[in-house]
Amino acid sequence: MLRKVSRTLALDRPVAVVARGGERLDSLVAKSPSIVPVAVDWHRTRDLERALWKVTKETGAFSLCVAWIHADAPEAPATVAQFVRGHFYQVLGSAAADPSRPDPGRRERFAAFPDLSYHEVILGFVPEGRGSRWLTNEEISRGVLTAIAWAKPSTIVGKVAPWAVRPR
């Protein structure tokens, strides 16, 4: 879903893309030679740390990070943040805006990294007629790129209210 973000950023800088590997990562690298593949599973914290250490040893710390890491890999965002000296954009699903589940201290966890500027990008939905739909890959990419350009602490892509009309 962040393929276009990776390719756009890779137009003027090397971009490390963390993914489990496979055909989609190979295809991305083939189309954008300045993309550095980091084939590792977010869930494997030690492997992730070793892979990022290797990349940053060769390229230096990341000055910009866009990370969409699902909640089932809770240690991965902080693991990645160790290697960032600049802006860290955490892409979050609409559940991050659920009024019944207040912010579980995301910002505070990243305050421990003094060289990091934390930003969150919350992906919402698009109201349509009497219902709503989830964002398309294009809308997600455009929203994340806009969030990077604005550099605000928090950006919502689409809508997150009224919460009751989100797609199910």
Describe this structure in words.
By secondary structure, this protein is an alpha/beta fold. It is 33% helix and 27% strand. It contains six helices and eight strands; from the N terminus they run αβαβαβαβαβββαβ. It has helices at 3-9, 23-31, 45-59, 76-81, 106-110, 137-150; strands at residues 15-19, 35-39, 62-67, 84-92, 116-123, 125-128, 131-134, 154-157. It has a four-stranded parallel sheet with strand order 3-4-5-8. A two-stranded parallel sheet has the order 1-2. It has a two-stranded antiparallel sheet with strand order 6-7. The protein is globular. The mean pLDDT is 92.
Summarize the structure.
The protein is 33% helix and 27% strand. With 168 residues, the chain is α/β, with parallel strands linked by helices.
Task: Reconstruct the topology from this structure.
Blueprint: H1 3-9, E1 15-19, H2 23-31, E2 35-39, H3 45-59, E3 62-67, H4 76-81, E4 84-92, H5 106-110, E5 116-123, E6 125-128, E7 131-134, H6 137-150, E8 154-157
| Assembly annotation | single chain
In the sheet with the most strands, the strands line up as: 3-4-5-8
Termini, distance in Å? 19 Å
Name of the CATH homologous superfamily: NAD(P)-binding Rossmann-like Domain
Q: Flag low-confidence runs.
A: none
Report the principal-axis shape: globular
